[in-house]
Every structure is written in C-alpha cells, then in structure tokens.
Design goal:
By secondary structure, this protein is an alpha+beta fold. Helix 8 packs parallel to helix 11. The N terminus is likely disordered. The protein has 17 helices and 36 strands. An 8-stranded parallel β-barrel has the order 19-28-29-30-31-32-34-36. Strands 1, 2, 3, 4, 6, 8 and 10 form a 7-stranded antiparallel beta sheet that branches. Strands 13, 14, 16, 17 and 18 form a 5-stranded antiparallel beta sheet that branches. It is 23% helix and 20% strand.
C-alpha cells in the first residue's frame, strides 16, 4: 500500500458529474428501442465553465477539435482519463460513441474502454492516420457496479502519440419491457454488517416499489423472499466468499437485478502474540498544527499572514511578521470538509479546544473575527506602553474548531505574537503541551518526517538546500513561510531532550554537504548524548508523487551519465522497471537507486566526522528506505554498495519499508466489518513466508542489517469519499486494535522484524486517511489503536515489583524480560541493587545468544567471566566490558574501530589485557564513564548490567 498516494504511476482522472443541462434529447427507433439522454455532460468539451481537474498530460482546449471549438487531448506518453458517468445500472445495455484521432505517432497499444472491475477490452481505438474516426460500442454494464462509484469509463493510453477525443456520448438502450423492469428495479445492494456466519443485506427501494416482493440470491440460488428492503442471510461459513443479488417481482414481471455484492465473512484472527516488544515500536509525528497540539503556544503554527480582509499579499518583515494590518488562521481543527458543508466524518468529531487563550503581541490592534461560524470573544485587552505589548484573553466556546483573527488599526503591523493554550501562562516556560508529551511517553523513537516537511520541499536539480535555508525559532511561524519549510531543528532537539526519545530524522533531498555537516554539528552539541539518531535520506524517494523523486532522478542521470561514475556500475533490471521506456531505461532507474545508497553513505560519513568514528551504526544509525513491495530493488542497492564500497553493514544500520495493510479490496459499499475483513486479509497476504514483508526481513539479516518499517499501520486513505463513513467506523472499532496487534505483532515483530514505526501519532479521520493512533490526544487518547500499540510495547506490564518505572533501568529490565533474558521469580523481584554474579551474567549472555540466533544467522556462545570465577563471584565493570565487546563483535559482525581514541582518566586502574575491551565498550556505547572515569574494579549491580545488556540486545537482535 501507498499511504496518501495513488502509486508509482502517473494517474489522472477527469470526473464529469451527470448534469441534465448538458443532456441530449432521448429518442425511440422504428423497432421500439428507446435511446436515453446523453449521460456525458459537456461531451463535446465546449464548455469552459466546468472546473475539471487538468492533471498530468490531459488538456481540454481549442487544438484539433472535431466539430466545434474544443476537444480533449491526451498528450504523448502515459495517461489515464476517467469519465465518470455516475450510476450506470448493472445488467443494463448502453451505447458508447465518440470521435477520435491520433497524431504524431502510432495508435495506443492499450487504449481501451473499461468500466468497473470486470469490463474491459470492449473497444479499441486503433486507426492512426491523423484523421478523426467515429467509433461506437453497445455493451452491457457488469453486474458488480455500485451506484456510489465503480462506474468510471476509463481510457488507458501507453503510446507516445497525441490522442484527441470529441463528441462523446453514452446512452441507455432500452426496450419497452426494459422500461417497465427499470421502474421496479431495486438498487444499491450492500451489507450493513456481517459476522462469521451471517450477512445483513439492505438495498434501495425502487421508485415504483408498491406491492413488490424481493427475492434474495446467494451465488445465483434463491435463499429467501421479503417485502422489506433488508434481509439477513445466515448459515454461512467463516472465511467464506459469497455473491448476493436481489430481484423484485410483481405478478409475472421480474425486475433487473441489483448489483452483485461480493461479501467475505469474518475470518477469525489467529491467537495474537502475547509477547511484549519494549522499545521496538516508534511513532511518526503528525504535521505541525494538526491534532498533535504539540506547542503550548498555538501561535507557533499560525498560518502565513494575509491582509486584514483575508486576501494575499501582505507585506512582512524578515521574520515573517506583518508590516501592516493583517490576519491569520491560528488553527483549524474542523472535520474535513466542514468549509464545504460536506463533512466526511458522520460523527463530525473534533477535539474540544474551547477555553481561555492568552494572547500577547508587540504593537496595538483592534482584534476581529474573519469567520463568524467559529465565534470567539476578546476580553481584558490591555496595552502596556512601556513594553509596547498588547495582551488579551481570547475566549473560544465549545463547538469551535477554527480561530481566524484579524489585526486592524495597527501602526505598522504586529510582531512577536503568542497565543498560549488554555491552562498555560504567557510567561510560562513550557514549549510543548503536557498532553503531547504524555501521548509520546510509550514510544522509544520519534520520526520527524512530517514535522520537517520532507515531502515536496526542495528546489529543482541542480540547485541545493543550504543551512541558511532552514527554519529558525525566531520565524513568525513553524509552518511554511516564504519557501521555508519544516520545523526548526532546535525544536527537534528540545523535544528529544525533554522526552529522552531517540529521533529519526529526514535529510532534505537537496541538502548540501555544508547543510549536513552543520546539522550534525548542531545535534552533537545540543542533543543529549544518550539519544540515538536514525538518519534517512529524504522520504520515499521512489515515489513519483513527491518532488524529491524527480530531484534524485535528475541528479542520478546527470551523475550516472559521466564515464567515471560509480552509479552506472553493476546495474540491475527490476521486475518493475519498464524495458520499453527509452527515456528512463532500467539502467537509469538502477542509477537512481544507487544514488540514494551513495548519498546515505556520504551523509553517514559526515555525521561520523562530527560524532566520532565509532558513532556510526552505534549512536548514528543510517537507514536505507525504499518501496515495500519491491525487494529486488533493495537487493540492487545493497549489492551495488557491497561491490563499490564494501560490506553494507559498515555503512547502514537498517533497511526500512512501509508495509501498510489496507482496505483496497473492500467493496464500494462495504460495511465497517467488511472493511476490517479486507484489511485482515491484506495483512495476511503480505506476511506469508514468501511475502515481501518476510522477504525483506530475511534480506536484512543476510547483510547483517536490521529490518525496520519507516511507516506502517492501517490504511484506508486515497482521497476518495466513497464509503468513507464505514471506513472511518472501521478505524474506530475495537477490532481495529486487534488487527494492529496482528499486523505489527504477529506479522512483523514476531517474524524477527526489529522496529516498527507506526504512522502516525495523531490525525483527524477523513477521506485522505485515518492515520492517527488517536484522533484527539486531549480527551480521547486511549483509542483501540493506541491501546494496541502500548499493549505490544508492554507499557502496562509490571514484571518486577521492585523496579520502579522511574528508575533509569526500568525500560532496560523490561527489554530483557521481553526477550526472555530474565524472568520473574516466585517473589516477582529483580533485585536491581544486588551485585551482578558471574553465574547470572553467563546465564543472561547465553539467553541473549539464543535470542539472537532465533532472529538471525548470528550466534555467539561459550563466554565466561573468568576461568577461575565461581558462579557467586561478583562481576566487575571491567569483566562486564570484556564480555560485552566479545558478544557485540560476534553478534554484529562489526569490529569497534580505534577504541584507543577513548580517553579514560583512570586508565591505569584497568588491567592491561582488558584495556582494549574497556575502551571499545565505551566507544560502542555499551558502557559509559562517570566524568571520564570508568571505575573498572567497581562491582556492577544488576540494574547497571541490565542497561548494558539491553543495548547489546538491540545490536545483536
């Protein structure tokens, strides 16, 4: 699946809604056949009044018309145009006709008339002499059509020629009997719910529906009759697939059938994993200004300033503050699309953000509301002449999700605007809201892709993004402002330091080397040393819906075309590479993949130069991300790195994919239960032994790398409003929580996947997706999704009653418990302060070795504290260091480089034979010093050992 996106292909859809104002007159032939009105509005393409989308290579204009002034043109290259004729009726006969011609090339090799999922290859446009030709086809609409969608007449074109279309008509063809049948035909058969053994059906009553009996068919066999417009079919089998349709009868006359409805009964979930995976689930942060409510000061995410009447073009200073009367939207949390009176969410759910907001700004202004639908009042407004500051209370009532404020009668604009949320003081020190921090607490790693506005945030090649282009904390807003995108890096650092979470950052695709070095230097200086940094090159550079794909493509072709380029070595043709594309050959596609790997290597080395040689793949962790469904392209990159640079594990820490599970196979009128069933089947399909998810886990292990997801979770987005109510309901259900446990737990982490980055912490639910683990972190955080993730993380598990959650070793002990390295005793105690014994350490290392072997090809065994040590002997920190380094190097296949670079103030106290291991343990981050002192002879407590062994597990897992 591809979240928020259509796919790797350029797709354009022209949606023409039926309109009687464009219909042609109906007619009757001499043999009594009735031809209906033209269902194609503006089928001659003359009207310029309809605001049709004009995407990719489709154009409506005056070039090469057939009859009057305009025609539709699909230019040379791949293109799809979909003409939506609304509710074509299943089983009905239609006549399609049009005039077409090709110019500047041959006929399309695959230009066909298609309708629905089973109707295609019905009409070929194949004359390519540069003249217009008339073509028509009489066809019967397929039985599965739904009135809500699935009735798109689509032209698919692959050739390089220009294609013109004009004077299109679609007419219903009816006999007199058809007209009578049509009047009593039910429609829109769909299920409202289903279980393992029954399906609840409902349909629309026809206009002439009096005195009708409905016959319900299952797999073309009548199973019941009713005079109602609903029926429950029982006696079904779990995991079954059934086809239903309904026919009406009155006396001897029988109607046309409804659409054929395909229903999958529920498949019982297998036993959900009971294991916990501490630290192995991270979360992506929603884009700034959304449902995350990240900043206590809501003005940090105000929208770009406009003039006081809302029109664009206000003058601003260098920081983005207005120099004249102005207006801004502080936030808009209304459901999509409330502003169009077309709300997706039937519950119209949005957070309660009412209350008293504390406003302050430099300057004077009369405050006003530019949207009366979201009222607020201004109270206690005061101007302090000494400081030049205005303060006021902004009271937002319940039911308001929008704050759109104007600042009028200013003296040269306003600046330094703050709007503290209810409960936060103007002079408060909080940067982030307590609700946001609480929501993040269970997760070990935070991905900042959306915070950093990674997508479509780059110049055209060969221009670069410089360090001076970054967002600053002094900017008027952290949202887009005059081509500056993404949050200030200082806020990423502050959030990480505040929460103690590892960070996953995305480097801009066009970032210069100076940008990378400057960022690495800032992180090294300001970030808590205990925090790990996952580094990814941009985001989904494979995805042609994002401009970073075009940037990398242009850069790769420019670099790969040079005779001495490394990119053009060891190329590979992928299964998905089009061998017939002369402009973008499989070899060039291979170059683009090679460049991503190369650029990530360069970025990792630049970070290494700032953080230290042993930081790479310990504290700094480059992650090579690509497209989840194409494992052979990962192999292309890793094979190329292996041959050109050397072992990939010396440069990368992990590979990552985005294995969403989606509802694309659910019908257009699927019940919420059927949506969930489709998602369960999708997760299972890609998690089989030969599925791409497992294949990538094995590929990572083959190269000694971790297998991550950079994004993942349930997907029901895509932008379509079809059946959006049931898709939203599915995501709010308790069963969705079980599906997340099934997909993330059973089908990834339990399959030896290493870390799952869930997308995303928060979001509203609408046609574009229901991504959030929570819709509302203020009043409704503990959703089924969120609870499923915390259950897998084991945040509520308390295996040892003597390890306080506030203890530094708490997460480490839980990690050891989750890996079966330690178990509870009869008293449920871990004894964290007790000295670590030699026998305990050897037993724990043995269990870690078995755990690692169960998840990868790596194994290490036979380590002992010392040949003469008794099981009850206390373990020193020096002895622990020796075993940790041996296990680390055996389990990872990596050698700690230049451990002697570590400076120990008490080096003379270290046994000479153990010195290299002690230094290596510090260099690899397995053990730490206290002010530069290692204290080699000190006795290690069980808590201290747990912290070190948890780090070892992460490396060798």
């Amino acid at each position: 699946m591809m979240k928020r996106r259509i796919g790797t292909f350029a797709m354009a859809m022209l949606l023409l809604a039926p309109s009687s104002s464009f219909a042609e007159a109906a007619g009757t032939s001499s043999d009594g056949v009735v031809y209906g009105s033209n269902l194609v509005p503006n089928g001659n393409f003359e009207s310029g009044a309809i605001a049709w989308p004009n995407w990719v290579n489709i154009n409506i204009g005056k070039e090469e018309p057939h009859g009057q002034e305009q025609a539709l043109k699909i230019g040379g290259g791949f293109g799809i145009s979909g003409l939506d004729f609304g509710a074509l009726e299943p089983g009905r006969t239609y006549r399609f006709s049009a005039w077409y011609k090709y110019k500047n090339g041959d006929a399309g090799g695959n230009l066909k008339l298609t309708l629905g999922k089973s109707f295609s290859n019905q009409l070929d446009f194949n004359v390519a002499d540069g003249e217009y030709h008339y073509i028509e086809n009489v066809f019967t609409a397929p039985p599965e059509l739904m009135k809500t969608s699935n009735s798109n007449l689509t032209l698919v074109k692959w050739s390089g020629s220009d294609f013109y279309l004009d004077d299109v008509a679609l007419e219903k063809v009816s006999t007199p009997d058809d007209v009578a049948k049509e009047a009593m035909s039910p429609s829109f058969l769909h299920s409202t719910d289903n279980t393992e053994t029954q399906v609840e059906l409902t349909w629309d009553k026809p206009a002439n529906g009096d005195g009708i009996t409905y016959i319900v068919y299952k797999d073309d066999v009548a199973v019941g009759e009713t005079t109602s417009t609903s029926y429950t079919v029982g006696g079904l089998q779990a995991s079954g697939v059934y086809n239903f349709k309904v026919v009406a009868k009155r006396s001897e006359l029988q109607s046309f059938a409804t659409n054929t409805l395909n229903v999958h009964t529920i498949t019982p979930l297998p036993a959900l994993t009971s294991d916990i995976y501490p630290g192995q689930i991270g979360v992506g942060l929603e884009g700034l200004g959304g449902r995350g409510f990240e900043f206590a000061d809501a003005a940090k995410t105000l929208r770009q300033w406009a003039k006081a009447d809302g029109s664009p073009g206000v003058r601003i200073d260098e920081n983005g503050w207005p120099l004249e009367d102005a207006a801004t939207v502080f936030f808009d949390h209304r459901p999509v699309a409330a502003w169009l009176n077309d709300i997706d969410d039937p519950a119209k759910q949005f957070p309660d953000i009412s209350g008293v907001y504390k406003l302050s700004f430099k300057g004077k202004a009369v405050l006003g509301n530019l949207d009366p639908s979201s009222p607020f009042t201004v109270q206690n407004q005061r101007y302090d002449m000494k400081s030049g500051t205005t303060t006021a209370d902004i009271v937002l009532p319940k039911g308001s999700g929008l704050l759109y404020m104007s600042f009028k009668e200013t003296d040269g604009g306003v600046s330094d605007v703050k709007l503290m949320r209810p409960g936060y003081a103007l002079n408060g020190k909080e940067t982030f809201t307590k609700e946001f921090l609480q929501a993040l607490q269970p997760f070990g790693t935070l991905r900042f892709m959306d915070w950093l506005s990674t997508n479509n945030n780059n110049p055209a090649y060969p221009a670069v993004t410089e360090w001076s282009d970054r967002k600053l904390t002094t900017d008027a807003t952290q949202l887009e402002l005059d081509a500056t995108h993404g949050v200030a890096w200082e806020y990423v650092i502050e959030l990480a330091n505040k929460t103690g979470k590892d960070i996953w950052i995305n480097i801009p695709v066009a970032a210069s080397d100076d940008y990378v070095r400057s960022l690495a230097k800032l992180l090294k200086e300001k970030l808590d040393p205990s925090i790990r940094v996952y580094v990814e090159y941009s985001n989904e550079v494979w995805n042609d819906l994002f401009s970073q794909q075009a940037y990398n493509k242009a850069a790769a072709i420019a670099e790969g075309s040079q005779p001495d380029s490394k990119l053009n070595q060891y190329t590979m043709q992928s299964y998905f590479d089009d061998p017939n594309d002369a402009d973008y050959t499989p070899a060039k596609r291979s170059w683009t993949r090679h460049r991503i790997a190369q650029r990530l290597i360069e970025i990792g080395q630049q970070f290494q130069a700032e953080f230290g040689e042993n930081a790479l793949n310990t504290r700094v962790r480059p992650v090579l991300s690509w497209f989840a469904i194409i494992p052979d392209q990962y192999e292309d990159m890793l094979n190329w790195v292996s041959k050109v640079y050397g072992d990939p594990k010396n440069y990368f820490y992990a590979i990552a994919s985005a294995p969403y599970f989606n509802s694309s196979q659910a019908g257009d009128a699927a019940s919420a239960t059927e949506v969930l069933t489709a998602m369960q089947e999708d997760s299972a399909r890609f998690s089989q032994a030969d599925g791409t998810k497992v294949e990538l886990i094995h590929l990572a292990d083959q190269y000694g790398l971790k297998s991550y997801t950079y994004e993942g979770g349930p997907d029901s987005g895509g932008g379509s409003k079809v059946n959006v109510e049931n898709r939203i309901a599915a995501h709010r259900s308790e069963r969705m929580g079980d599906l997340i446990k099934y997909d993330v737990g059973n089908n990834f982490l339990a399959q030896s996947g290493d870390m799952f980055m869930y997308f995303t912490l928060s979001s509203g639910y609408n046609r574009y997706g229901m991504w959030g683990a929570a819709e509302d972190i203020i009043d409704n955080l503990l959703t089924p999704k969120y609870r499923a993730l915390t259950s897998l993380l084991g945040t509520d598990a308390q295996p040892f009653k003597d390890v306080d959650p506030k203890d530094e070793a708490y997460d480490a002990v839980k990690t050891l418990y989750g890996a079966d390295v330690v178990t509870t005793d009869a008293n449920g105690k871990f004894e964290p302060k007790r000295a670590l014994k030699a026998g305990d350490l050897e037993a724990m290392l043995g269990r870690i070795a078995a755990y690692a072997k169960s998840r990868s090809a790596h194994a290490f065994t036979g380590y002992s504290v010392a040949p003469s040590a008794k099981p009850q002997a206390d373990v020193t920190k020096e002895q622990l260091a020796v075993l940790l380094v041996q296990a680390y190097e055996a389990g990872t296949g990596r050698t700690v480089q230049h451990p002697e670079a570590v400076e120990l103030k008490d080096q003379k106290q270290v046994t000479p034979s153990a010195l290299a291991s002690v230094e290596a343990s510090v260099a690899a981050g397995l053990l730490t010093t206290d002010g530069g002192k290692f204290k080699p002879k000190s006795t290690v407590t069980r808590a201290e050992a747990a912290v070190a062994l948890a780090k070892l597990i992460e490396y060798v897992r």
